[in-house]
Amino acid sequence: MAAQKQQQDRKQDQKQDQKQDTQQNQQQVLKHCKVAILATNGFEQVELLEPRKALDQAGAQTRVVSLKSGRIRGWNFTEWGDEVAVDATLDDAKPDDFDALMLPGGVMNPDTLRMNPPAVEFVRAFFDAGKPVAAICHAPWTIIEADCAAGRRIASWPSLKTDLRNAGAEWVDEEVCIDGNLVSSRKPDDIPAFSREAIKLFANPPEVSTEPQEDEDVATDASCALFVRLEAKPGREADVENFLREGLTLVEDEPGTTAWFGVRIGDSTFAIFDTFPDESGRQAHLSGRVAEALQAQAPDLLASAPVMERSDVLASKLPGHQESRARV
Question: What is the pLDDT of residues 126-144, one digit of tens each?
Fold first, then answer.
C-alpha cells in the first residue's frame, strides 16, 4: 500500500510540474513582443482591458498610444467607465518600435481616431510593414480610413457591414476571423476567442519579405491571389473596359505582382485577377496605383462596390517556369 501511495504521489507531482511548465510556456509565448494599443476617450473598456490582460499574461509588453498624454476614459457599455494611463502619444510613438498593433472598439474611440491623420498613418504603417494587427467591434473604421480593408475578410460590429463592403472588404459574422496579418472579432462576447487568436498571430506572424527578390524563379512565383468582380453601370461598359486596359501600364510598375489580368465576363460584368509571390506583394498591390485609381473611379463607373476575394494559389503554370507547379 505504501509503495502504491508513493507511486500515486510521484504521478501527481509530475502532473503538477507539467502544469507549471505549460503555464510558464504560455506566459513566455510573447516574450519580447512589443504591442501598441491605439485608443482614445470612449474606447469600449472591456475591449481594451481584457485583451491587454491576456497579452500581458502571455509575456507581451503592451503600451497604450493615444492622441494626447495623461489618461483616457473608457466607455463601460452604457456609461463612462475607468481611466487608463497613456504610455506614449502619437508624436512620440513610432510603428518601427512595435511588433504588433491592437485596436479596441467602442463607437466614439475609432470615430475620433479615423478623423486624426497621424492616427490613420500609424495604423497604415503596420499594414504596410506586414505586422500583425488585432481589431474588434468598431475598430475596423480606422482600418477603412487607412485604406487597408480592401480584399480582406473582416469581422466587426454589424453596423460596419456596409462600410466594410464599400471599402472592398468581405464582412463576416464570425466570432473571430483571421486574414493574413489581421485578426478581427465582432463584439465583447468574442473577447476570449479574439484574445486567443491575437496571441497566436502575434507569436507567429506571417512571414513578409522585405528584401528584393533577385532569384528569377522566386520572383515569378505565385502563392496568393486576388479576384475582383466589377459590375459596370448601364452605358459605362466601354469606360470600364478602357479602365482595365489602361490599368496594365500602372501594374507594370509593381515588382511584387506576378501576373495581372483584366477580363470581361459578361455584357456588363468585368473582373481583375492577379497573383503575387507572397503576402507583402499582395498588400503592396492593394495600396498601389491601380487600387487607388479603382477606388477613385468606382462611384462613377460601377453599379456597386467592387467585390474582392483573397485566395491562395494551389497550382500554377507561369511564364519563365520550366514546369507547372502544385502547392502542397
Answer: 999 999 999 999 999 999 9
Buried b (16+ CB within 10 A) or exposed e, 71-103: ebbbbeeeeebeebebbbebeebebeebbbbbb
Tens digit of each residue's pLDDT (9 = 90 or more) over 18-53: 544 444 445 679 998 999 999 999 999 999 999 999
Q: Give the rounded distance of the alpha carbon of 287 from its chain centre.
A: 13
Q: What pLDDT, in 10s, does the model give residues 3-13?
A: 566 666 666 65
- My answer on whether 154 and 43 are in the same domain is yes
Virtual torsion, Cα 209, 211, 217, 221, nearest 10 deg: 30
| Cα end-to-end distance, the chain, whole Å | 55
Cα 123–56–156 angle (5° rounding)? 45
The pTM assigned to this predicted structure is 0.65
Q: Kindly state whether residues 289 and 179 are assigned to the same domain.
A: no
Total number of domains in the chain: 2
Give the residue from 178, 203, 228 where a domain finishes.
203
Of residues 137, 148, 177, 224, which has the active-site annotation? Answer: 137
- Which range marks the domain in which residue 139 is found? 31-203
Confirm whether 32 is a catalytic residue.
Answer: no
Non-local CB neighbours of 7 within 8 Å, separated by 6+ positions: none
What is the rounded CA–CA span in Å between residue 101 and residue 165? 23
Cell of 228: 475582383
Spot the catalytic one: 33, 138, 148, 177.
Answer: 138
Whether 137 is catalytic: yes
Tell me, what CATH number does 121's domain have?
3.40.50.880
CA dist 50 to 29, 54, 56, 181, Å? 18, 6, 10, 21
In a domain, 3, yes or no: no
